Amino acid sequence: MTRIVETAVGRLGPTHRADRNVEILGVAGAGKSTLARRLAASPGFELAPFIHARRPVDLLLILRTIPRLLPILWTGLTQAPRISWPECKLLVYVTRWAAVLRRRRKQTDTVFLLDQGPLYAIVRLMAEEKPFTERRSFVSWRREMLDRWSTELSDVIWLDAPDAVLWSRINQRDQEHRQKGEQAEAGLRFIARYRRAFESIVPIVEKGAVRTMRFDTSTSTGAQIAEAVRASRRREGNQPGG
Description:
Blueprint: E1 21-26, H1 32-40, E2 45-47, H2 56-78, H3 85-105, E3 111-115, H4 118-128, H5 136-152, E4 155-160, H6 163-172, H7 184-206, E5 211-216, H8 222-237
Parallel strand pairs: 1-3, 1-4, 2-3, 4-5
């Protein structure tokens, strides 16, 4: 793996706002959830909600989104390996969740933290390499969604580490993971597949107003990264007109 250079990049673009949607991105074992919890404990940050089909309002959202996704779902349900229910929810989440966050925005000026957010959801769908992801309907949908989220997200915090470190973390943590206990070769292929997918989509959203902050979590602690992110927000608060 090319070594990840720790950066908290640069200048604010003219469309950067104090109220932001920030996605924490990275392969398994990179430390996304740990950082999200640490930041969410800080004033001005909040974990964004996720879709829950058992919640009536979210179930209604799923039903309303099905017509938009029918071309993808038809292929996904008729060709093996078939699309799963969690994958269907990811499609709905990416398609409609920006509107949910905008409604919540009226009630708060905090930074919304998206752990396993829309970019992760797109990558997860891609990385599974099921037949429906190769069809024109999915490719067109993915392009549309990346364009949309390039304006809905303001920052991406991209966490990574050397493969050996990630693989060790996956196998040592208590949390279940489907690659846990697999042969190292299979695990490393899994990591590489997800990383390639991330590397293919992040440059697309960076063409919008999205800023990327990259950290190597083998050389920087969660506390150091959280402080870098908080410091960035403090600097933004001091910007003229901020």
